[in-house]
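Q: Sequence in, structure out?
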Amino acid sequence: MNRFFVERKDISGGRAAVSGEDAKHMSLVLRLARGDEVILCDGAGTDYLARVEDMEKERVRLSIISSSASETEPETKVTIFQGLPKAGKLEEIIQKCVELGAAEIVPVSAARSVVKLTAHEFENKLPRYRRVAYEAAKQSRRGLVPTVGGLVRMDEIDPAAFDAFLLPYEEERGTTLKEALRRLGKPRKVGVAIGPEGGFEPEEVARLCGKGARCVTLGKRILRTETAGPAVLAMLLYELEGEA
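A: Exactly. Output:
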């Protein structure tokens, strides 16, 4: 069944409204008609079974049939701090991390980032990245649309804001991701820092670890930056919640 996100203010008194691009998609692409049913999600953990009552090109009105708590959101809220990769890769990373259950993706300007952008320059790209997150959340039946944050500097990352902060690092030899997670128990707010192509510089690693980050190894193989984030996320949620 087709699924759409709506703002909570657009659901009231047993009625709902969908507008903008989603309304166009409903009417022009899906060619929904009066009486057809869809799932609406308020982005706050509630799903609604709704029936189309009235179709316009840019606005669709629906009646609410029933509501239920979304069952697709992990209890563990994971924020991926992604070292800014080469052009085109960030969209793939956002898509896969959203599908796998990330709560937030924050792009980071790191010393070895090939692409050099200011926070202001990155702002122009944010609408596209947030649309990628939105579409991935719809496709994977998420209960919310994960946040894609603005570009931050390495020194703006605060590991202390999390119950646990993990830094996969190719020079780490002692602590595996599984070992680190088992020592931490059941953290509910986890940060993960993923380096760009070429990884983080030793000084960046030392600075984050000095603030409370914990270095972990992912094994003997070196993963591409577009692989590392989704891989860590899948392993982390599997270990903490039994999710693949």
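The chain is about 30% helix and 25% strand.
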